[in-house]
């Protein structure tokens, strides 16, 4: 199992790679919430080691307040960081799609 840090901004489709987005834009989600990331990681069998709700990724500190996604997790996963982020983003999209259908 590998441990790594996941910032909410790494999954945010509104950000460029320069400002910390780690996955391709077509796979990223808009304004990911830390709760969504935690729920997705747990469903995917990843272990949440640590949660910091008010941490801000240093890469986004110069951006407009509306683009700053606060929150950081330390996750333990059997996959690497890149694959884990892709799986989490995919799961968040599934959550959001199912919530839209219920309305």
TrEMBL record:
Mind naming one GO cellular-component term on file for this protein?
signal recognition particle
**Record's family?**
Belongs to the SRP19 family.
| Ribonucleoprotein keyword on record | yes
Protein's job? Involved in targeting and insertion of nascent membrane proteins into the cytoplasmic membrane. Binds directly to 7S RNA and mediates binding of the 54 kDa subunit of the SRP.
Whose protein is this, by species? Thermococcus barophilus (strain DSM 11836 / MP)
Q: Which NCBIfam families match?
A: PRK03745.1
UniProt protein name? Signal recognition particle 19 kDa protein
GO terms for biological process, alphabetical: SRP-dependent cotranslational protein targeting to membrane
Q: Which GO terms describe its molecular function?
A: 7S RNA binding
The alphabetized UniProt keywords are: Cytoplasm, Ribonucleoprotein, RNA-binding, Signal recognition particle
**Pfam families according to UniProt:** SRP19
How does this chain assemble? Part of the signal recognition particle protein translocation system, which is composed of SRP and FtsY. Archaeal SRP consists of a 7S RNA molecule of 300 nucleotides and two protein subunits: SRP54 and SRP19.
Which gene specifies this protein's sequence? Answer: srp19
């Amino acid at each position: 199992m590998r441990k790594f840090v996941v910032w909410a901004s790494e999954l945010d489709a509104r950000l460029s790679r320069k400002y910390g987005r780690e996955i391709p834009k077509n796979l990223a989600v808009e304004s990911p919430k830390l709760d969504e990331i935690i729920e997705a990681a747990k469903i995917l069998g990843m272990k949440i080691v640590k949660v910091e709700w008010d941490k801000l990724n240093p890469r986004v500190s110069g951006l407009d307040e509306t683009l700053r996604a606060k929150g950081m997790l330390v996750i333990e996963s059997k996959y690497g960081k890149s694959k884990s982020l892709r799986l989490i983003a995919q799961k968040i999209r599934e959550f959001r799609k199912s919530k839209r259908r219920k309305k």
